[in-house]
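Listing S7. Sequence submitted for prediction.
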Amino acid sequence: MAVTLNIYDSAIKENAPETNETDRNAMGGTEIMKFGLHDRLDKELLNNFQIICSRVRNIDPNKKTIYWLHDLPGDPESEHLKNEGWKKFDKLVFVSNWQLEGYAKYYNIPYSKCVVLQNAIDPIPTHTKDFSTKIKLMYHSTPHRGLDLLVAVFQKLCEMFDNIELDVFSSFAIYGWEERDKPYQKLFDICKSHPKINYHGSVSNEEIRSALQTNHIWAYPSIWHETSCMCLMEAMSAGLYCVHPNLAALPETAANWTHMYQWDEDAPRHANKFAANLIQAIKIINSEQAQHRVQMTKTYADSFYTWEVRKMQWEQMLKGVLNEPN
């Protein structure tokens, strides 16, 4: 997924989703959700609301205000919720139950003020994967979420398996923050020089969706507390065998359909656990049992994470807010 300024530029118009200095050059998961929701909701209904994603800059007193949170409760941008600051909003929308519980406890927000509406994707088209020559692993997220751990483990696994390859789609350019790539340049250089790693940087979501269809295993040794994970939703929908830890909202997103292991705070122990589970995944990926499991996983993802379902839930929620007494 890449920085797509044309999408932002075309959105600077009346009734467009709110954009501020932190996200105007970004097209990450939050921005894809923001524009995706705006494009799908009934405009007459939408005109009654100010929907603010994560960063609050101003509140329109003439509209119902929906605060759509994508961050962690300790984020500085959420500190305004202290001392009953949450009362400024008509409804707070969270992207996972795990996230809601964290915010409710941290800021003493009543559950009646909140609703969980998970993120959504367009299902990946049904396709047949080719296992005849190699087993392809994929990572498509920013580098600070565990890419260094994956690269180190993959280098070791190449000593065990001749037929594995890794596609890496990773850069802060997705948010327009190219300067934040600098600490990871050596890691990117390792990826570029390794004969079995294909480093793609940041590309469009369309290219990601295409690449998912040619890959077999989603390798994500996450060290980041995800409030939701659209990358995992996409991988599940694309029929990848997903290997990841049980950290933060990943178990909720996976819903027990994936190959999930116990996360560990200690980096070397985490690497060993991830390696062991990835080895197992590589060995069984082409088995009938594993392929049956990923097909069921796709069915689940396509049923519960589709925009068709999420649009309906959003519209029901917004109509409910309109009907609430002042």
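Caption to Listing S7: primary sequence and predicted structure tokens for the chain studied. The first strand starts at residue 49 and ends at 53. The first helix runs from residue 5 to 11.
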